[in-house]
Fold each of these.
Amino acid sequence: MARVTVGVPVYNGAPMLRECLDCLLSQTFQDISIVISDNASTDETPEICAEYAAKDSRIRVVRHSENMGPLANFRYLLDHADTEFFMWRADDDLSDEHFVKELVAVLDANPKSQLAIPRIVTEHENHVRTIESSFQPIDGIDLADRVVKRLYNYHVSGFYGLWRKKYLHECVSRIWSAYPEPYAGDHLTMLPAFLEDVAIGSDRTLYVQRTYSPPKGDGLRGKPRLSDRVALYERLLPKFYACFDAEVRRRAFPAEQEARILRERRRFTRTRLRASPWRVFRLKVKLLARRLFGSE
């Protein structure tokens, strides 16, 4: 049995899927199982998956007859993994060739850690890279301070780091039941690792989050209309806050530390998600103005 399962959820990922799979096959850590979950793609994705499965026995393809939505596709891969370590790989992202090797070594050397996060860079069109993020150690302060600092000191693509599979499955089972939404679910999934101080980083490997894959029809690409953004924030912010609060409270922090972390809830969504009750109000005013002047 392999030590690491790499789950690749894909829907209409043909433009970049070959690069993604070539990257995974070039990993210096060979003891991996690559499972592609094709969410009823309508482009050339099935043919590409079959081509690569024939090329390398470590690749297995599951093709769903109906689109189950992105969250269920991610969950399918995790639920069916039976390895010690697990990671998702977005079909349009890349990493260096030592990515898996380095993060396995980090978790092997730190048995209490549950998530290993690489150095991360965001790549835009024409290979322009911005927002390079490393996982900075935070020492010498109490747990509440470390948690608060960590909330503003990570890249959301840390979600695509390497997890101990059992821990991730427990987090996902609990959190995705309370918050069954793709939008901002990655932030909540990582939250337990920060609250419990079991996330660790390595700057010796790089993950490349690419932002320029074409729209796929899965709701994860493209800029939504202003009215859709308002509706999304109004629907999801209360759920996000409730899940955030529940995760903090279940750790039974001392009362003063718990209160300090809970106070960060709105600043966190405003800073990291660009969403808050005040921002919703401002967007509503903007939307009303557009409607009055016939531009929405």
Note: The beta strands are 4-10, 32-38, 59-63, 85-88, 94-95, 115-124, 128-133, 162-164, 199-210.
Amino acid sequence: MTVALKVRGLSVKVADKQILHGLDLEIPFGEVHALMGPNGSGKSTLCHVLTGKDGYEVEGSALLDGSEILDLDVDERSRAGLLQSFQYPTEVPGIRLEEFMLEAGDERGIARDEIEERIEVESDRFDMARFLDRSLNDELSGGEKKRSEIFQMAVLRPKVALLDEVDSGLDIDAVKQVAEAVEEMRSPDKGILIITHYSRILRYMTPDRIHVMIDGRIVDSGGAELAEELEAGGYDSVRDRLGIEKKTEDVAAKPADFFTETPFDL
């Protein structure tokens, strides 16, 4: 089985605070994996480090299709085949979606006739043809923005797609639509990582593997049985089974934090 993304011993600090502790993760080509964990467990930090965000002290290795990427700049990682969708896609008035995709294709060295064909095919598949002449993400609903990002990834065909809380802020109908779009994007030459703490999206798709991150470590991995455990008992059930003590943070909880310990709650 060929590995799209292989992370080994990834440790990350910010201002002397350890966030990730020797993390290991593998995502084979052709598979969709879900990374779950309560708020503050390090999920988004992992995504930021993989895509090259500044400000982190990083040790370890991350191989994209066998090649190290941690020493590459952000644009070099993208050209190597790593793309990320965002929790809150930015609106860019004045830049049409189709124009943006043509420029992105040029940057990645894709021939103009090839990128035009991909745009036509994928816009039909993801119902985005009606948005091609509109400004990027401008006046789109949350679900439309997330589907647009998945459409963009389908056109650019990354080797690894990182979907950072792709279900964030969506109503249940939009979550179902985004889940279906992710399954549509699945292909033998792509590995997909969905990062989430509200795993209701897993009700509408079939990830090949589920990983649970707590306190900067992946503490457990499994299939449907792990999803069922989380649905029944939340993250506390995993903590109890593995003997992990729940930490008390010194900061006040944000309103969203009260929903992250029961990941299947609506």
Note: The chain has seven helices and twelve strands.
Amino acid sequence: MQHRQTQPAFSARRSVRRFTTGMPVSALALAGLVATGLLTPAQAACTHMRVGADPAYPPLHWYDGHQMQGASVDIARRVLDELHIPYEVRYLGPFTRIMKLAERGELDMVATLKKTPEREQFLLFPKTAALSNPVAVFQARDRAFSFQSRQDLVGHRGGITRGNRFGGDVDDFIRASLEIEEADTPESNFNKLKVGRIDYFLTGYFVGMAFLLKRSDEASFVVPPTYLADTPNYLALTLKGACADRLDAIEAKLAQLKKSGALDEIIKANLARWRSSSLARESTAP
């Protein structure tokens, strides 16, 4: 079976009736949706899964200029290969575009992201997480402040990367209690943090460390040992996509791979890959 990885955007699909839900959808329930006309038979038939991911979130997922890489992508490949589901992983532009395509049903899987009520309106999440992605509070070393709980962030200026969500009640707390600026990339946030335009940067621990490794700038920043949250990331299926009926099979395979330790091995391998990649070394090149 051949799986191709290409760059062009997905072609537009015939529009379907909008159907949103925050409840888990099983294969049996999806069959009922087909019967009632909320999903068309063509939409429910999964013959080729279209997979997208954030291109700027290493080492979990990133675009190396040729193809998508990362632990999330490798976990998606492993699951789909073992389930014998044909698929195609594509670079589709920034994360905000990925989410718009997902909402319209113009791709079938997002690998990986956190579960939030907003995303549950157009994405289906299995019970088993693909990986854990703790949210860290990065600070400039020369302006670090004590952080032991979320309340310690109140009164300080923070930054996040546009489109990032942290799940649970963390997003509600950020909206209600914190002074937060959005920037387009982690790189921009680290630059703002270094010159004092913000006091902290909230991002996944792994992606934050990956970008500092790329910058060769780890000494300028610190990460408190307490995380803001330790939230899971999931392989999510799009409700309007053609493969929503594979949710139960993907859940079963993820549970099996997690129990065997295979998911942890994939994460470790991608951390090592990022450290040795040309992207991680490019800032030190003459």
Note: The radius of gyration is 19 Å.
